[in-house]
Amino acid sequence: MGSSTLYLVFHVDGQRYAIAAGNVVEVLPILETKSVVGAPEYLNGILCYRNVPVPVVDFCRMACGREAIKVMSTRILIVNYTRDQQQARWLGLIAEGVTETRKIADSDLRAISVGEGAGLSHGHLFEDKHGTIHCLDSQRILPDAVHRYLFSVDSSLEVA
């Protein structure tokens, strides 16, 4: 039998997204973050997680341009994030509707990759009777500009 992956599913404006559960370190409730001086709107702030400063990005801002709604199912996903052979880091993603997991057979996924950049134009799609789930590539979840801002060698996030 073919292999499958467990995904954590969440929702944004009627669209379903998922991230491989193996890349999720922890699912946290919405917590206070320290704001960052001059930060772009998608950066919610910095969270001290296990004594490590972790940037927290609002996935709703990236996906549809609005702030995540703070309800019981809105969570911060602490994700293992490594890109371009850089040092492994943690990234916090604020996601709405974090209410289910789903095991998906690898053979049922269709790869998508649009353009050279990263972000929502990469990953896999899965179709079921309820529509499409966009399974995000956790290593390319951030658009290039966001990645450079948060993790470039020159980047120094000044906490307010």
Description:
- This protein is mainly beta and 160 residues long.
- It has one domain (4-151): OB fold (Dihydrolipoamide Acetyltransferase, E2P), CATH 2.40.50.
- Helices cover 9% and strands 45% of the residues.
- It has helices spanning 59-64, 144-151, and strands at residues 4-12, 15-20, 24-29, 43-49, 52-58, 75-81, 89-95, 100-105, 110-113, 122-128, 131-136.
- The chain has a six-stranded mixed beta sheet with strand order 8-1-2-11-10-9.
- A hairpin with a 7-residue loop joins strand 6 (75-81) and strand 7.
- The termini are far apart.
- The model has no long low-confidence stretch (mean pLDDT 86).
Main attributes of the structure:
160 residues; mainly beta; OB fold (Dihydrolipoamide Acetyltransferase, E2P); six-stranded mixed sheet; five-stranded mixed sheet; 9% helix; globular
Show the helix and strand layout.
Elements: E1 4-12, E2 15-20, E3 24-29, E4 43-49, E5 52-58, H1 59-64, E6 75-81, E7 89-95, E8 100-105, E9 110-113, E10 122-128, E11 131-136, H2 144-151
Parallel strand pairs: 2-11, 5-7
Antiparallel strand pairs: 1-2, 1-8, 3-6, 4-5, 6-7, 9-10, 10-11
